[in-house]
Structure formats: structure tokens, C-alpha cells
Amino acid sequence: MSVLTFHIITIFPNYFDGPFSHGIISQAQKKKKVSIQIHDLRGFTQDRHKTVDDRPFGGGEGMILKPEPIFRAVESICDSRSGVQRNVILLSPQGRKLNQEVAFELSMHSQMMLICGRYEGVDERVREYLTDDEISIGDYVLSGGELAACVLIDSVTRLVPGVLNKDDSTLNESFVRRNLGSGSSQGYTILDYPQYTRPENFQGLKVPELLLSGDHQKIHLWRRKKALEKTLKNRPDLLQYSHISEADKRLLELKLEP
Ligand code: SAM
Q: Which pTM does this prediction carry?
């Protein structure tokens, strides 16, 4: 049975005490689908003060994470697992952006090492000579890579086969390229459809009647219509109206509710 191992290299090992102890990530570790190993960067320093950072050459604000402890950390983790592909990932706002497709790609690996930057970032030689990939979780700057590592691990773990109870439950989520029928020949990336649960009537706010009808074909069409509408409204970058199939355009114009 294969286990996906995440190695996190960080100056704040205690940061991860909470995020991996709940829900799906916790269960995935118990089921031995994933393993999360935290490595304290200060453990790879060789001076009395356990120095991990220093001032930038050329001047400027803030501190930079030094290369030596990071190289030593990666080499030591690799040494103890010879033959395993390193797959070193630097978390950085300058990296390629994490999305569902990238998460799928990463879920195919058997291990990865995640380097969490801090302060003004990481010595450029780490990026240039040590890392295989550089990943950003979005176009904003966080104080450190730890939160980005949590996001990456969460999004990748739920895609590892056997982690969710039904493997196909990930196929109906937002951002998955899908062709849900209604005669359309092509699949496109759309957001998830709206979901409701009990009570049917909450303070006068009613669940759409069609969902209570038991007419599964109509429900299926309604869900696709709502997913298309939501994608066009909230994320037009994912789906241009001109790219939508004729069948889906007809569905968008169809009145399904009374
Ligand atoms: N000076 C850097 C810049 O402008 O690109 C930002 C450094 S940031 C304050 C410190 C660390 O947080 C980075 O080295 C990186 O590890 C992490 N980080 C910040 N934003 C991130 C993002 N959007 N995605 C992934 N990691 C991020």
C-alpha cells in the first residue's frame, strides 16, 4: 500500500500542531494514506545560536533564510530514504499557482518536501539549485510558507485514492473539468452547484421545490444550470459564454422552476 509522505521544513514546527489533527487529514494519516513529517530547520544549523537567517546582500529591509540549513535539511531527509525521488517544493508567492489540476498532479507523487519561507524570503540559491518546483497558493503575500503548506497538503490529500470514503466524491466538486450531460459534448471547469439540507423551511426561506420532487432528471438539469450560472457570474475567467455548448446555452434559458 503506497503512502504519500509530506516532509515540511519550517522554523515553526509547533505551527502544525492543530491543522492536521482534524477531519479528513487526520483520518488520512490514521488510514496510512498520507504521512506528515515536520522538520525543524533550526535542527540543521551548526552554530551555538541556531541561526537560520541573515541580512540581505546589497542592503534592504528584513532578513533572508540562509541556504546552508535548508540544503542540509533536504540532504538529510533524502539520505535516509535513498532511491526516493526528492521532489523539493519551495512555497513562494512567486511560484506557479496552486489549483485543482496542480493538486491532482502532486497527488500522484509518493513524497514531497515543502520548504516554508519566512521574513523576506529564502536565499535565491535554494530556489535555483535545490528545488524542483515553486508553488504559490495565490496572488497575495503571507508572512510565512506554513499556512501555504497546510493549504497544499489539504488540497492534495483529499485527492489521494482511498482518502475520501467514495473516491468519486471529488469528481463533483468545483474546478473539476466535467461533462454532466445535458447533451453537451465537451467538459469544462465549472463551480459546484448549490446544496441544501434540512429544514425545508428555515424562517420562511424555502429549499427550491424541484429538489424535493424526486425527479432526478430534472434535479440533474437544475444543478447543471445553477453551476453554469454561478460560474458565469462569479468566475467568468473559468468559462466564457461563447465556449459553452449549444445544449448548455439552451439549458441556461430553460425555466425549470415554477
Ligand atoms: N519578499 C517576498 C516577495 O515579495 O515575493 C515575500 C516573502 S513572504 C513575507 C515570506 C514567505 O512566506 C515566503 O518565502 C513564502 O515561503 C511564504 N509565502 C508568502 N506568500 C505566499 C504565497 N502566496 N504562496 C506560498 N507561499 C507564500
A: 0.93
